[in-house]
Amino acid sequence: MSEDPHKSSVSSHELDSFAQNKKSWLNLQKFHRKSEILIQKNAGEIKKMQGHLSAWLVKHGLIHRSLGFDYQGIETLQIKPGDWHSIAVILYVYGYNYLRSQCAYDVAPGGLLASVYHLTRIEYGVDQPEEVCIKVFASRRDPRIPSVFWVWKSVDFQERESYDMLGISYDNHPRLKRILMPESWIGWPLRKDYIAPNFYEIQDAH
Known about the structure:
- This protein is an alpha/beta fold.
- Helix content is 38%, strand content 20%.
């Protein structure tokens, strides 16, 4: 008795379709496994980048961005200008009562300006200081950052120098004016798009 050729053909087609679907399903499973491994790996890398202070800020709901660690192993954080003053007060109360230095730099021609603060917390002795680097980025068109003079008085001349060289306005600084260049000087000498004048006026030192 001969088999129905149409029935045999349909069964073969169904088997092929099933095999293709099974192969697609297995590939999809492999993709999900790889995705899960990649997510776990990235989570591990992010956790490694997050330092002690960043974890503490996250725990207390304080907005910031972890930038990892610098070449000396010092934790580096980015704070928004609008959040900087309140977080500075919190850091001072937390124990970062010593400001080692403040500086500023031009990130790129036509780009953002950065104000950088190096803070130290001495809890377990002077030979075991806990340091952190804070970066606050400001728009080039209107670079305004809250002054932390009333938190760390030692920032006085340093914020003035950053203003003098890069034109960053530190709001609520008690005497924000040029400190190196004459008051009549036009422009901000350490900006990457600064064009030096062709001549300088030599003033008497007396």
